[in-house]
Every structure is written in structure tokens, then in C-alpha cells.
């Protein structure tokens, strides 16, 4: 379909995943297979599904993977909230990361609309 490196939304999602990995390094060790793993999996899914969609041959497949990516933004946002409420990240870190998730979600919605609008 296209080179994912050219998509600003992928770049932002990739950098968000890197920062979430760094932020979650300080989570309790007993949460390694709990919330740490869940948060990391969700945030990586955002960029990974963009990449997979770009490798598909049809617009419908591309749109489907963008929609999966969109769902992963919701999951990421929730796990960030849970991390804040459990005291694993500060309110400031939560706010900064959540605002970036929201920006990525808006970009995905716009891209999904553009992909769906073209024949």
C-alpha cells in the first residue's frame, strides 16, 4: 500500500511507544507480566498495526488495520490511567502521555476517513 515511514501518525505512535517503555521501566517488578506487559503491548499495537496495514494490498485491509490501531489507542489510554491511579506514573507523566495518545487517535480517525473516502 505505502511506506509506513512516510506516515506522521506512525512516527508519533513509535515515539510514544518508546517513551511508554521508558516510563514503565520503573513499574513494580511484580507487575512485569501484569500492567507493565499490558500497557507495552497496547502501545506497540498502535504502531505495529499501522505498519501491518501499510503492507496490505487493498484499501479495505489498510483501513481495517488502522481501525485495530485506533482500538489500541483506547486500550493504551486506559492502562495509562490505571498506571496513574495505582501510583506507577505521576499525574504529570500521565497527562503528557495521554495527550499524545489523544493526538494519535485524532490522526488515525482522520486517516481512516481519508482511506475510506477514496475509491
What does this structure look like?
The chain has 119 residues and is mainly alpha-helical. It has a single domain, classed as 23S rRNA-intervening sequence (de novo design (two linked rop proteins), Up-down Bundle), CATH 1.20.1440. Helices cover 76% and strands 0% of the residues. The protein is built from four helices and no strands. It has helices at residues 8-24, 35-54, 59-85, 91-117. The two termini are 14 Å apart.
Index terms:
elongated; mainly alpha; de novo design (two linked rop proteins); 119 residues; 76% helix
Chain-wise SSE layout:
Layout (H helix, E strand, L loop, with lengths): L7 H17 L10 H20 L4 H27 L5 H27 L2
Helix pairs in contact: 1-2, 1-4, 2-3, 3-4
The CATH superfamily is 23S rRNA-intervening sequence
Low-pLDDT segments? none
Helix content: over 70%
Rg, nearest Å: 15 Å
Give the overall form.
elongated
Question: How far is the first residue's CA from the last residue's CA?
Answer: 14 Å
What is the tally of helical segments?
4
Tell me the number of strands: 0
Tell me the CATH topology.
de novo design (two linked rop proteins)
- CATH class descriptor: Mainly Alpha
What sequence of helices (H) and strands (E) makes up the elements?
HHHH
CATH architecture descriptor text? Up-down Bundle
Task: Tell me briefly what this model is.
With 119 residues, the protein is an all-alpha fold. The protein is built from four helices and no strands. 76% of the residues lie in helices and 0% in strands.
Amino acid at each position: 500500500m505505502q511506506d509506513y515511514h512516510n506516515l506522521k501518525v506512525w512516527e508519533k505512535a513509535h515515539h510514544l511507544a518508546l517513551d511508554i517503555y521508558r516510563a514503565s521501566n520503573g513499574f513494580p517488578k511484580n507487575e512485569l507480566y501484569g500492567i507493565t506487559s499490558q500497557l507495552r503491548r497496547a502501545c506497540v499495537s498502535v504502531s505495529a498495526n499501522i505498519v501491518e496495514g501499510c503492507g496490505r494490498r487493498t484499501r479495505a485491509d489498510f483501513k481495517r488495520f488502522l481501525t485495530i490501531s485506533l482500538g489500541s489507542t483506547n486500550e493504551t489510554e486506559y492502562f495509562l490511567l490505571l498506571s496513574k491511579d495505582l501510583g506507577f506514573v505521576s499525574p504529570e507523566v500521565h497527562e503528557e502521555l495521554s495527550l499524545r495518545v489523544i493526538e494519535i487517535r485524532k490522526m488515525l480517525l482522520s486517516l481512516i476517513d481519508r482511506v475510506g473516502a477514496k475509491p
